[in-house]
Amino acid sequence: MKTLKFYNTLTRKKEDLAPIAPPVVTTYSCGPTVYNYAHIGNLRTYVFMDELRRALKYFGYDTKSVMNITDVGHLTSDGDDGEDKMQSAAEKQHKTPEEIANFYSEVFFKDLARLNILLPEIISKATDNISEMIEFVEKLVELGYGYETDDGIYFDISKFSEYGKLSRCNIEDALAGARVAVNAQKRHPADFALWKKAEKNHIMQWASPWGMGYPGWHIECSTMSKKFLGDRFDIHTGGVDHIPIHHENEIAQSEALEGHRVVNLWMHGEFMLVDGGKMSKSLGNVYTIDDLVEKGYSPLAFRYFCLNTHYRNKLNFTFDGLNGAATAYNRLRTLISGCKDAPHASRDVLEKLAAHRVAIEDAVCDDLNFPLALGELWGMVKLPACRELYDTAVKLDDLLGLELHKPLEQKPAADIPENVKAIAEKRFAARQNKNWAESDALRAELDALGYTVLDSKTGYELKKK
Ligand code: AMP
Ligand code: ZN
């Protein structure tokens, strides 16, 4: 089995994966808060989760992965201020929180399917785990980490000496950085809510030892990871925005309860920016997959766009960038799918093909370096067209999820046979490499098949003679 290396946010180092109970690898991914459409930034984070899970499966591990669906308790600030996002969406849309959650969950799962994101083995809603959360909070209170105020139960961060170890800020920093406490009864301004007591008009509330109320957002992930994966698991994923508050708080709760380290590897996906800045409703730059589809892009071209930047680097979304990715993606797919009926490879080509495959796999083993893997794939498709190239791409699709071996859907106007398209693509590649002799020879081949090719600066057009 190949050794997989991943960057651990906790240690700031790449580490060899050493599963607790091989061949199973246990993972937990913070899921969506289902009060709105997931935007392409959110989805980038789930493409990253999928890269990880596909890599684990490809290299022979069995994944036991959990993703939660947040349908209660996430306030409009990641701290303890503001309204519950679900309640506020329900009020605005005159629906029940359950209707809101069901509607946006359905859209979210449709997006995951369109992006070829494999579903985690266990998906569970926060509202189905309330009694376990209450038990968790009760234990933290018993152990002296939780305390009650008039409006809820809070975690006393000064009792957890390692608070801040993930983001490398110490308790003093956390205390200094916290806003002046809205709740004067909190022992420290940076203490966070484990459980909130509900006002009468709060829609979602449950009976608890502290009266009617609802859980804090962070306790949801600590409880659900413990319930499904136990007191120690292999990998926890999320977006980088979760490092300083949400994941720091998860660590405090879980480790306070267990008395030992719970997560071996913390992996975080960097943010997607739009036109170099933050996505925000007020700037009108929050896009969904539906928006991209309406503009004529395929969801898998967006997946290719994501894979082409390492998950630990910021990814700047622009339509120019997406255009480039879509063109590259379509070309790659045409080239590869066109090899299905190609002749068998020579021994020399077979050796080169195998070397490219190993290089692609090695890139992925090295902290999911998919951009490097795609670069290798481009090297691979420069080999002479052969059936084995197609077969290799079919195998690699378990890793890439890009369906490169499937012919692109034909637009009604372009009823050009796959073999003709494949020759045109080879010719285009030859031109890109300034290989004029090969390009001319391929033009002659097209000619003989009854097709003319018209070149332009950015591509070409094929016409039947
Ligand atoms: P939420 O539904 O707000 O809980 O977010 C779902 C996931 O999307 C979380 O893992 C966030 O870290 C992630 N996320 C939010 N905004 C972005 C962004 N602009 N780029 C990448 N990931 C994001
Ligand atoms: Zn979480």
Would you mind describing this structure in some detail?
- The chain is α/β, with parallel strands linked by helices and 465 residues long.
- Helix content is 43%, strand content 16%.
- It contains 15 helices and 15 strands.
- The protein has a 5-stranded parallel sheet, sandwiched between helices. Strands 6-7-8-9 form a 4-stranded antiparallel sheet. It has a two-stranded antiparallel ribbon with strand order 1-2.
- Helix 2 crosses helix 3 (97-114) and helix 14 (418-432) packs antiparallel against helix 15.
- The termini are far apart.
- Bound molecules: adenosine monophosphate and zinc ion.
- Zinc ion is lined by residues 30, 221, 246.
Rg from Cα: 26 Å
- Main sheet record: 5 strands, parallel
Strand residues, percent: 15-25%
- Count the E strands: 15
Structural class designation: alpha/beta
Give me the strand/helix succession.
EEEHEHHEHEEHEEHEHEEHHEHHHHHHEE
Small molecules held by this entry: adenosine monophosphate, zinc ion
Task: Please list the strands of the largest sheet in the order they lie side by side.
Answer: 5-4-3-10-11
The separation of the N and C termini measures: 53 Å
Mean pLDDT, as a whole number? 92
Shape: elongated
Low-confidence stretches: none
Q: What helical percentage do the residues reach?
A: 40-55%
**Given the structure, what is the number of helices?**
15
Tags for this entry?
alpha/beta, binds zinc ion, 15 strands, binds adenosine monophosphate, 465 residues, four-stranded antiparallel β-sheet, five-stranded parallel β-sheet
